[in-house]
């Protein structure tokens, strides 16, 4: 792989834009997962009575179970959202940048 | 809460779902007497073996180049890889250990399952596409990308082999105990069967066969687990409320069944465990290797989407199985020694899932689930062996010893010998450690993966300032500190070496060894003003473009 193709890509303003967009998006999603999960862990560690609370009188669903199921579904939905955007919008910009760089190379 | 009891609990829980090792390690296993021959299980396992051997035969004809051998030619689709990752990640102990934990401790197990799942979205957001764009055969291809090939690869291979060996031995010991229990086969015979099949899959079929063994196993696991869950729930009219109400009535925890108990009572253990699970997963060589088998970053992302969906689904299946087992198994004297409901479960606590299968589906379903457990061990062990063999042949032999001048044919030959060598070592160590508590080996494997592999890997992808000296300092310190903390913790210092009290009070090293490794890598890199360090920093620019765009990565898979 010739280094000049990389140089072409680096000079393309669309590259900086792609990287900034994707990094911001991935960081945001990762931060959401980490905050929600470790927040939940801290509640379990320091205030377990909250986790054991019933949602309503006579129901067996506790906040812990609902919060757990919510995390399984929510985090998976986040992976879906990321893959959709990365494989669609981001990859389209990516292909465009790479094609432009090869053309410049020729 | 008594601290030593807590740490023992945390260690036991930490190792349960990771490896069948804990099956051998937990006190429940003392009851692991050899069972009568289980013909249904053996019959169904035989079908599985024939099928996988057929696939291996087919795969052997398609395994010619090094890329075929290590990464199935890079032609696995995202969906296939997602199934294979799930098959690689969910071990026999996930099925057995987590069902048992739900049965015994209720909602604690559910919280614990989230910790196991949550690493996957993080791997997707931070690593998946970069892994694919930069990697070729082993993760050392990434860490050594712009650093000193010989030194960095040697370090990566040493820590990879440490992880693989401990995880492999833990799996083997667990496999021997489990198979003795499920199939009524002798411990040593079971080890030879597992070792021999693993060697056949990997040496002849390489990554193609390994991938398909993992895919088939994942499908069997999903099918078996779902069937048991549906049959069990049908007894309660598919009503969670009905199931939960009755479970609380009979369980010794009563309404506390749905309250968090001791599991996460100690924040240090809880966070250390969480970090170890999350970043250990992201540093396991056999898991990382799976990302090099797909065509491009697109498929790598899809792999995680499918894998995390399957893993999340299956954990919920297991949770329901465990809950249903409280009533279906826990109230049936047939499954208790001497028919005493207050006594021990026949075969030990980890047999809850198996008893449940028997209760709802008879001998046929029991046999199927046993065959699934055996297949699961094989799939995990084959993945580990391939990762270990590639560290020996691709990193040590081809790059460090031959300095890139080895021919592809000899490199493949070396990896086949390495596989056979690893298989022999695994069987022999499995026999040596038969009577020993090997739970610490799993803590060690995850601790080393999180502390030695992960920091250097993530910094090499994200931080321009990383230099060879920094990588070596952090990698070796992470390896050394993770091993030292585990040795000084209760699981080795007290349980294996017989000392009175542990020197390191926690069982999970990650919270301490991981920051140490990061710190050492960063400080040493910053202090490194050598000429070489300057050019290594400059090389980051090109690596960064490749990591982001995948330019140059396509050719990586082709030769």
Automatic annotation (TrEMBL), chain A:
Pfam families: DUF485. One of its GO terms (cellular component) is plasma membrane. The chain crosses the membrane at residues 28-51, 63-83. Keywords: Membrane, Transmembrane, Transmembrane helix. This is Conserved hypothetical membrane protein. It comes from Azoarcus sp. (strain BH72). The lineage of its organism: Bacteria, Pseudomonadati, Pseudomonadota, Betaproteobacteria, Rhodocyclales.
UniProtKB/TrEMBL annotation, chain B:
It is found in: Cell inner membrane. Keywords: Cell inner membrane, Cell membrane, Ion transport, Membrane, Signal, Sodium, Sodium transport, Symport, Transmembrane, Transmembrane helix, Transport. GO terms for cellular component: plasma membrane. It comes from the Bacteria. The chain crosses the membrane at residues 40-60, 81-103, 109-128, 155-175, 187-209, 221-248, 268-292, 304-329, 364-393, 414-433, 439-463, 470-489, 509-527. Its main location: membrane. Residues 1-24 form the signal peptide. InterPro entries: Na/Glc_symporter_sf, Na/solute_symporter, Na/solute_symporter_CS, Sodium:Solute_Symporter. GO terms for molecular function: acetate transmembrane transporter activity; symporter activity. It is a multi-pass membrane protein. Pfam families: SSF. Belongs to the sodium:solute symporter (SSF) (TC 2.A.21) family. This is Cation/acetate symporter ActP.
């Amino acid at each position: 792989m010739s280094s000049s193709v990389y140089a072409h890509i680096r000079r393309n303003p669309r590259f900086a834009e792609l990287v900034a967009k994707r990094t911001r998006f991935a960081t945001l999603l990762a931060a959401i997962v980490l905050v929600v999960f470790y927040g939940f862990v801290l509640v379990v560690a320091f205030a377990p009575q909250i986790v054991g609370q019933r949602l309503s009188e006579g129901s067996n669903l506790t906040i812990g179970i609902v919060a757990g199921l919510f995390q399984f579904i929510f985090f998976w939905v986040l992976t879906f959202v990321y893959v959709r955007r990365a494989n669609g919008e981001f990859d389209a910009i990516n292909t465009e940048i790479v094609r432009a760089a090869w053309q410049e190379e020729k | 809460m008594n601290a030593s009891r807590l740490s023992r609990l945390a260690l036991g829980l930490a190792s349960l779902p990771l490896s069948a090792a804990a099956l051998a390690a937990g006190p429940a296993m003392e009851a692991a007497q050899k069972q009568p021959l289980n013909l249904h299980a053996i019959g169904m396992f035989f079908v599985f073996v024939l099928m996988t051997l057929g696939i291996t035969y087919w795969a052997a004809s398609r395994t010619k180049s090094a890329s075929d051998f290590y990464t199935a030619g890079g032609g696995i689709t995202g969906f296939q890889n997602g199934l294979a990752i799930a098959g690689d990640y969910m071990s026999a102990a996930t099925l057995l250990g987590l069902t048992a934990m739900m049965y015994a401790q209720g909602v604690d197990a559910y919280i614990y399952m989230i910790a196991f799942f949550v690493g996957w979205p993080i791997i997707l957001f931070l690593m998946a596409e970069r892994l694919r764009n930069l990697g070729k055969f082993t993760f050392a291809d990434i860490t050594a990308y712009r650093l000193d090939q010989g030194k960095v690869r040697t370090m990566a291979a040493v820590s990879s082999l440490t992880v693989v060996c401990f995880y492999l031995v833990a799996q083997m010991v667990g496999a021997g105990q489990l198979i003795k229990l499920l199939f009524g086969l002798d411990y040593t015979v079971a080890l030879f069967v597992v070792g021999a099949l693993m060697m056949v899959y990997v040496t002849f079929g390489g990554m193609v066969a390994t991938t398909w063994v993992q895919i088939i196993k994942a499908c069997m696991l999903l099918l078996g687990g779902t069937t048991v869950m549906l049959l069990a729930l049908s007894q309660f009219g598919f009503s969670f409320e009905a199931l939960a109400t009755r479970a609380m009535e009979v369980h010794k925890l009563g309404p506390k069944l749905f309250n968090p108990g001791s599991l996460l009572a100690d924040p240090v253990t809880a966070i250390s465990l969480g970090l170890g699970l999350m970043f250990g997963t992201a540093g396991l060589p056999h898991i990382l290797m799976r990302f090099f088998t797909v065509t491009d970053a697109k498929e790598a992302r899809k792999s995680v989407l499918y894998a995390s969906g399957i893993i999340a689904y299956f954990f919920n299946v297991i949770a329901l199985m465990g809950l249903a087992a409280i009533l279906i198994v826990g109230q049936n004297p047939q499954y208790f020694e001497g028919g005493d409901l207050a006594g021990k479960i026949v075969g030990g606590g980890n047999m809850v899932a198996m008893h449940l299968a028997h209760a709802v589906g008879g001998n046929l379903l029991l046999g199927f689930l046993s065959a699934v457990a055996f297949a699961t061990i094989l799939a995990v062990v084959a993945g580990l062996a391939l990762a270990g063999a590639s560290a020996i042949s691709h990193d040590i032999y081809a790059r460090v010893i031959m300095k890139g001048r080895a021919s592809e044919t000899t490199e493949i030959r070396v990896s086949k010998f390495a596989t056979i060598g690893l298989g022999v070592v695994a069987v022999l160590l499995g026999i040596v450690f038969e009577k020993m508590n090997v739970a610490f080996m799993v803590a060690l494997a995850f601790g080393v993966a999180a502390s030695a592999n992960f920091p250097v890997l993530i910094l090499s992808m994200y931080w321009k300032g990383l230099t060879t000296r920094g990588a070596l300092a952090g990698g070796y310190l992470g390896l050394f500190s993770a091993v030292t903390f585990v040795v000084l913790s209760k699981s080795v210092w007290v349980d294996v070496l017989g000392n009175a009290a542990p020197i390191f009070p926690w069982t999970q090293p990650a919270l301490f060894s991981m920051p140490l490794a990061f710190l050492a890598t960063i400080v040493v890199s910053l202090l490194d003003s050598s000429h070489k360090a300057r050019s290594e920093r400059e090389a980051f620019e090109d690596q960064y473009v490749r990591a982001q765009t995948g330019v140059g990565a396509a050719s990586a898979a082709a030769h």
